Amino acid sequence: MSKGLLYTLGYTAFQKGANIDLEQLFAVLRSLGVGFLIDVRSVPFSRQYPQCNASNLNSIWKQYGVRYVHMPELGAKADPTQDVFSKAEDIFFEDIFPVPKSSRPEKTELFGYHEIVDFNKFRSNEFFLDGISRIKKAYEANCTLALMCSEKHPINCHRYFLVSKTVEKRLGDIIEVHHLVQNQHGELITISNDDLNNQLIQTVFEKKDIKRLDVLSSTFERPEPIISKYYGRTQKEQIEDFCDRYWNLMHGWKKDNNNNTDTYND
What we know:
By secondary structure, this protein is α/β, with parallel strands linked by helices. Helix content is 35%, strand content 18%. The protein has 9 helices and 12 strands. The strands form 4 sheets. The protein has a 6-stranded mixed sheet with strand order 5-4-9-1-10-11. Helix 7 (193-205) packs across helix 9 (235-251). The radius of gyration is 19 Å and the shape is globular. The model is unreliable at 259-266 (pLDDT under 50).
């Protein structure tokens, strides 16, 4: 039995000048056989692109024939009542702290003792898994979905790192994820989770702080390479775990000490 296709997109890939070309966005979805556009932003609101606000999309989707649905379960929203935070030094084991503010979403330095969203924990969160279950039911009913956020590059978005990886891990026997991206000529194409996994590894290992660690090498003082402390049965799996944790360090928002809601915005 062939797998169902689940697509993801960032609406900024459809930017034309100061606006988002919603007509093109919905036309692409129809050409792919998508019946439901699933908004996975925790807060479905954009000050810069108000035409992508939930209120507008809810009012116009009928004219395009692709139903709009907001699913906050699949956002990266986290509040202090959820057990989805860890110390940064427990997420990424190497001493590269402090992480400079230029590398962080909230533009503040990150020290090892700071608590940030831990995406490994998030993938087991009950509310989040409710959303994954809704996806499963949709594909059991032969629906085709597209997950939408704002970021045009899926490698920088939780729709890849948090949602798509969970979908393929838990539902990979019935669903295959394809990400809509622009190629070097500005044309829209699709790439797979495997493509993004390889892209992530390449990106991480090109970072200066990672090159300095030289995680794959053994030395007289260090007979076991650094990568061996990461999780996996093979070195390839350990490398993937290492890169996932580094990505988490660069993208996970700090826990709000004032007990306000933390949100990872793309």
